[in-house]
Amino acid sequence: MQQHSTGILSRFKLTSTVVLAFMLHCLTTILAKILQAFVNIVLTLCDAQDSVVMFAPYYFNSYMSFQMTGVTDILVGPGDLNTLYPDADWLEATLQQRKPTPKLVTVVNPGNPSGTYIPAPLLQRISDICKKAGCWLVVDNTYEYFMYDSRKHVCVEDDHIVNIFSFSKAYGMMGWRVGYIAYPSEVKGLAEQLLKVQDNIPICASVISQQLALRKMTAK
Ligand SMILES: Cc1ncc(COP(=O)(O)O)c(C=O)c1O
């Protein structure tokens, strides 16, 4: 779906490498929904005994996605008591001390159930901490358009980051079940493994849903 890829791409400042990943992904494996996207990522990146990191208050479905795929060492970091922002100092200390290093850190931005967004400098710091530790960062951007008071939603991109997006909230398409993953194409084997998981679960999102998603994105 070339036009769909282009529509998605126009919303981000992406490097050419990531653009390729986006297009490859959107051409081949638009997901049946973002919950499936998260499970696909866990199946792709994690092994059953791995540690992973989330922050309180966390999105319960992500927690269950770890549990049901055998990833039961789930470290839950604190959120700031006033802002509910993920505690980056805790993350830094945890990723330095914990051996073996947790495989993956996940945040939801803006958050469910916190309702708060992660400011760009904090998101970048979380990304830098993950990169230094050799840990994946998975950002759930389901509520990317739920930003108020002139605040702007931002994404971070790098070769250790996977961003996931949904049409459910952003385009009012809950029942149509369409979402997508933006992943770094330069990581060897990642695309193949993501596609392998996708091919064994839904194969693809329904074509009629993809067509509606395309029309929603290109509507004036
Ligand atoms: C944080 C978060 N991620 C993902 C989802 C699921 O999105 P989808 O409808 O695309 O499966 C929800 C839905 O409530 C959500 O709150």
TrEMBL record:
- Which keywords does the record carry? Aminotransferase, Membrane, Pyridoxal phosphate, Transferase, Transmembrane, Transmembrane helix
Q: Look up the record and name the cofactor or cofactors this protein needs.
A: pyridoxal 5'-phosphate
The molecular function terms of the Gene Ontology recorded here are: pyridoxal phosphate binding; transaminase activity
Question: Residues in domain Aminotransferase class I/classII large?
Answer: 42-211
Could you tell me which SUPFAM superfamilies the record lists for this protein? PLP-dependent transferases (SSF53383)
Give the protein's recorded name. Aminotransferase class I/classII large domain-containing protein
- Residues that span the membrane, as ranges: 12-32
**Pfam families assigned to the protein according to its UniProt record, in alphabetical order:** Aminotran_1_2 (PF00155)
Which PANTHER family does UniProt cross-reference here? Answer: AMINOTRANSFERASE CLASS I_CLASSII DOMAIN-CONTAINING PROTEIN, ASPARTATE AMINOTRANSFERASE
Quick check: keyword Transferase in the entry?
yes
> Family per UniProt?
Belongs to the class-I pyridoxal-phosphate-dependent aminotransferase family.
Keyword Transmembrane found: yes
* GO terms under biological process: amino acid metabolic process
